[in-house]
Design a protein that fits this description.
five-stranded mixed beta sheet
Length: 91
């Protein structure tokens, strides 16, 4: 899987959420990750939300898919998202 992102957006994401997109790619290796379409707003493109593990932390990654997976944002999951993820995780 190929990844891409805007480096200015990555720096902004690191300042705001403390997660580097290069590390956030790890979520795509999580066999228990969840996937849903991001339909919170009418975007000009189809966006996806994945919740999964980055190393030992549970994070939320928003991205688009075209020739490559383009990361838009990454943040630590909130309590509700962690509970949802953990309830689906294969033990």
């Amino acid at each position: 899987m190929e990844f891409e992102w805007d480096e200015n957006k990555n720096k902004s994401n690191q300042e705001k959420h403390g997660i580097d997109f290069n590390d956030a790619k790890e979520v795509f290796n999580d066999k228990n990750r969840t996937l849903s379409e991001d339909n919170r707003f009418d975007y000009s493109e189809k966006r996806w939300i994945t919740i999964g593990k980055m190393f030992k932390a549970i994070i939320v990654v928003v991205y688009t898919i075209s020739d490559a997976t383009r990361l838009i944002s990454a943040r630590y999951a909130n309590k509700k998202e962690r509970i949802s993820y953990n309830s689906k995780e294969i033990k």
